[in-house]
Amino acid sequence: MEYSKRTDLILPEYGRNIQQMVDHCVCIEDREARTQCAQTIINIMGNMFPYLRDVNDFKHKLWDHLAIMSDFKLDIDYPYEVYKKENLQSKPDHIPYKNSRIKYMHYGRTLEQMIERAIDYPEGEEKNQLLLLIANHMKKCFLTWNKESVSDEKIFKDLNELSNGKLNLNQDLLKLIESKDILSRNKPKNNKTNSNNTNNKKNNGRK
User: Is the pLDDT assigned to residue 3 strictly greater than 50?
Assistant: First the structure.
């Protein structure tokens, strides 16, 4: 009934034999002998994963794992700065996320951020070109999700709305990419390939 008495492995990928070696190493009283035992265990652990030897900091990771498997009780002079118990249990820094909802999903948040930047851009020809690029990109995004034609007026209206009325483009002066040109670019090219394959088969059949 030995299995019922076994505790869970801290790092199961190394197996119970390695864990027992670590437990034995912790109990060795002589510091020099304990250090030699730890080095032997590290060599065995490394041989278990030979394909990882060229990975950066592989040796360092092994010593980290040894410290973890000993429950940080192994008192030796480590060749690397290993994990501390308090660092292992610490939580990573919280990544801030923007909680505001995307107004139009087909445009996406990145485009909304581009519009926010464009609002503060200095007036001039460069800003006009930037707004033209943004408007054309909006039109491409719109047609990706809605496989129908969309008017420039609709794009300019959405741009004005997303900028809270701070960006107004003159539809009479600006001309966006034609919807048909965008849609033709989005069409898969498999039809031509399939047509060529069919013709090749017909030609081969005539031989």
Answer: no
CB atoms within 10 A of CB 166: 13
Q: Choose among 173, 171, 174, 180: nearest CA to 153.
A: 171
Neighbours of 32 (CB within 10 A): 9
HEC secondary structure over 41-89: HHHHHHHHCHHHCCCCCHHHHHHHHHHHHCCCCCCCCCCCCCCCHHHHC
Same domain, 112 and 64: no
Whole-number mean pLDDT of the chain?
A: 82
Q: Which of 88, 121, 151 is the last residue of a domain?
A: 88
- Structural domain boundaries, residue 14: 7-88
pLDDT of residue 108: 83
pTM over 0.90: no
